[in-house]
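Fig. S4 source data, part A: sequence.
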Amino acid sequence: MTVQCIDCQHFSLRDAGKMVRQGYGHCDLQRSKSSFESADFERQCREHQRVDSETSINRRGWLEGERLKFAREVRGV
C-alpha cells in the first residue's frame, strides 16, 4: 500500500526543526535524529500507522502555511 508519512503516527513535523519548512519531518523509527523524510512523498512502509483524519488535516494545513511563509521569504515579499 502506498502511504504518506504526514498521515503516520510515527511521523513528527515538530522534531524536524527548520527542515519542516522544506516539507520534511522526522520518523520516530529512524535511529538518527538528523534523518528526515518527506511529509508528502508517496512511499511503501510496513510500519505505517495512520493518524485520525483531524490530525492529518491539521498537519497538512500547518505544513502548507510553513511552506507559504518560506516561499514569501525567498521571493522577498
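Fig. S4 source data, part B ends here. The first helix runs from residue 53 to 75.
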